[in-house]
Design brief:
The chain is α+β, with helices and mostly antiparallel strands and 67 residues long. The chain has a domain of 30 residues. It contains two helices and two strands. The protein has a two-stranded parallel sheet with strand order 1-2. Helix 1 links the parallel strand 1 and strand 2. The radius of gyration is 13 Å and the shape is globular.
């Protein structure tokens, strides 16, 4: 499992998705050592103010609970 936080928005569907080097790199490392079933839990936009931060953290907690 990859748990990541980011100040900006780089996840799927965001305009900056092509600039996401964090999750892709980590998935490539895990795949290289034989771990191919990797879940990603992310909290994005945590530096964009208190409301987006709270929403991001709540969303990450929901993702964890769903796993």
């Amino acid at each position: 499992m990859i748990i990541s936080t980011r100040g900006g928005l780089y996840g799927p569907g965001s305009p900056f998705e092509p600039r996401d080097h964090q999750e892709k790199y980590m998935k490539d490392v895990f795949t290289f050592i034989g771990m191919t079933d990797v879940d990603v839990v992310r909290a994005e936009g945590v530096s964009m103010g208190e409301e987006p931060k709270a929403k991001a953290l709540a969303g990450a907690k929901e993702q964890i609970a769903a796993l």
